Amino acid sequence: MSVYNLMRTGVSGMGAQSNRLGTVADNIANARTTGYKRASTEFAALVLDNHGTNYASGGVESKTRYAISQKGTLEYSASGYDLAINGQGFFMVGDAEGRVSLTRAGAFVPLEDGTLMNTAGFRLMGYPIANGNTGAVINGTAGLEAVNIRSVTLVSEPSTEGVMTTNLDVNEGIVAAGSLPSDNVAGSTFTHTSSLKAYDSVGREVILDVYYTKTAANQWEVAVFDRDDAAPGGGFPYAAAPLSTQTLTFDPTTGALDAGSFTDITIPVPNGSSLVIDLSATTEKGTGYTVLDAEVNGSEPAAIESVEFADDGIIYAVYENGARSAIYRIPLANVASPDRLKPESGTVFSITAESGDLQIGFPGEGALGTIFSGALESSNVDLASELTTMIESQRNYTANSKVFQTGSELLEVLVNLKR
Q1: pLDDT the model gives residue 302
Q2: What is the pTM (predicted TM-score) of this model?
Q3: Which residues lie closer than 8 Å to 236 by C-beta, 6 or more apart?
């Protein structure tokens, strides 16, 4: 081998080992970086064509590999906005220009405007849920938007169902026809009354006056009025007819509703929905009027108090009144060859021709995995292995520098011989 070839081989080896030391240094520096994937340098012989009697030495070609598909361990945290994936999928995040990348770094925090952003400045992307539909596109990023937990307006829930369980006194007298609550006259007479609070379609309270009136033995009329229609000072006559009326009949031997009786009443709430009140547990026994249960669903307008992340990727808004609604669904993405993704600054990865096309799905589908809230995926760097590699690379670097030094000394001898 010529002195030139000897020196070139030494330089090539030193360069390769320098690359290896560089990847080790990056790995050690990012050992505590959430979602970081370790890099490694692999070597291949670089052989040149040899012709004639002179040997032309090649060298070492170095290639950097990334263990992107290798998962790090999950570490639990106190923040519900910290997200981790138990599977092979990636979060989809966007930068300030709207470019979408993949990441396993799920340390998200809400900004002042409610946008969820991780510590590298990338926004979590998701599909807004409208009428239970996400409008997801499985082979592209159309429809994705930055998740914003404060963009949802105040919500209210109209009343649609309820229950009212009472005991009606069997000893009460019968009210004559013509003066019943359903007649809605100034002299209307009732046996018992209670009021219920319901909500219309915009969250306003609607007070419903419920009248129970005994019309015959073991038979009672139920009439419901809107209190806003009551006469000055309250009561009859109301400005409008009853919202709904119903007749209950009781079994005289048990005091429960008989088999042929109505068991509920449907009330059209003003500016609201049809409210169905369950009356099936109403009784007629020899004791005073007693309300045993009275519940009506619905809620007044309320703002978001907190959010919850389900393992299927759905984000639920929890409102001040206790109501919950699905507002976003977080997709997960993958490619055919994750280790061929291109690492970018911020612990994100971009698609390459070698990685394969983007494939989008939801948590729980295939091998994408599920989402954990209150956990982060740690770096997959093993410090012990990296330190061992560093020592080995340092020794190899020293050995290659000796080769270069020997070539330099031989070249000096040759120069001195010419003199």
Answers
A1: 85
A2: 0.65
A3: 181, 184, 185, 186, 187, 188, 230
Query: What single string gives the DSSP state of each residue in 178-228?
Result: TSSGGG--TT---SEEEEEEEE-TTS-EEEEEEEEEEEETTEEEEEEEEGG
CB 95 within 8 A of CB 121: yes
For residue 310, the SS3 value is: coil
Q: How far apart are CA 68 and CA 341, in angstroms?
A: 8
Q: Give the end-to-end CA distance of the chain in Å, rounded to a whole number.
A: 23
Q: Give the β-pairing of 370-373 and 244-249.
A: unpaired
Q: What is the pLDDT of residue 64?
A: 78
343-362: b (≥16 Cβ within 10 Å) or e: bbebbbbebeeebeebebbb
Dihedral angle sign, alpha carbons of residues 119, 136, 307, 77: negative
**On the CB side of 255, how many CA atoms lie within 13 Å of its CA?**
11
Q: Which pLDDT tens digit goes with each residue over 104-130?
A: 999 999 998 889 999 899 999 999 987
Q: What is the pLDDT of residue 22?
A: 73
Alpha-carbon separation of residue 264 from 67, 209, 244, 267, 280 (angstroms): 64, 16, 11, 10, 6
CA distance 244 to 227: 13
- Give the pairing of strands 161-169 and 274-278: parallel
Query: Which residue is listed with tokens 């306003």?
Result: 204
CA 351 to CA 87: how far, in whole Å? 19
Q: Look at residue 297 and give its three-state secondary structure.
A: coil
Nearest CA to 358 out of 105, 144, 103, 139 is that of 139
